[in-house]
Design a protein that fits this description.
Blueprint (H helix, E strand, L loop, with lengths): L9 H11 L7 H8 L5 H14 L2 E6 L2 E6 L3 H14 L4 H10 L3 H10 L10
Antiparallel strand pairs: 1-2
Length: 124
Amino acid sequence: MAVPRRRHGDLEQEILAVLASVDAPMTPAEVREELGDALAYNTITTVLSRLFRKGEVTRELVGRAYAYRAVQEPAAVTAFQMRQLLDHDQNRAAVLTRFVGSLSTEDEALLTRLLGPTGEDDAS
C-alpha cells in the first residue's frame, strides 16, 4: 500500500508544530523521532535549513549539530524576510525609496518616528 504524498509545505508545517510544542531547541534527530515518521534524517535537516533561511526558526550550535527553535512572533518572521529581500538587491537605495514611497501616510509617519533620535516608537 502506497504512503500518501504530502502536499507542498505540509512537512514544513509539521516540523514547525513539533518545534512550537516544546520549550527547548531540538536537533534534527529529535524532530525526526517526534514526527514518528519514516523520513530520512537528511530530509528533516534540509527542511530545517530552509525554515532557517526563511526566518521561521532560529538555530544554535549544540556540539557538532544545530538545534532549532520555532520563531513564535510572526512580525519577526516578516522582518527577517524583508531584510533578506533587501540584502539580495545591490541597489539598496532604490529598494528602500520604492518601499517608503509605497507606504500609507500612517505607516510612513510610524517609520519616521521609529527612525527618530531614539529609534523607538513613543506609542509602545
